[in-house]
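Title: Prediction job returns without error message
Component: structure pipeline
Severity: low
Priority: P3
Assignee: unassigned

Description:
Job completed but the reporter wants confirmation the result is attached to the right record. Sequence as submitted:
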Amino acid sequence: MLVSHRSCRSTLVLHEIEYVTTLKDNPQRQQGQWNNHNSQRQPLFPSPQPPPKQPNHLEEALTKLTLNTNTFIEETRSNFKNQGEALKKVEVQMGDLAKQFQ
């Protein structure tokens, strides 16, 4: 069955008139409220989202190790300083005893 160009064109024109009439008679459709499926359409190429950050056990272990090491270093320095002062006192006392025996 062959369809003439004129009949296709007249059908298209009738559909356009029907659409415009429906749009004109329905104020909600004019404001875009009647056809909400367009606003919910997903983009063809969504922007990549970074994966959610999960706690990394290695990072946590490294952080704890760093804190413990820094604490150990501070305590060692403090102990070393205290031992140095104690040795100086012992040297002074030994010197005093040596003077007494002479």
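Comment from assignee: result matches the submitted record. The chain is about 70% helix and 0% strand.
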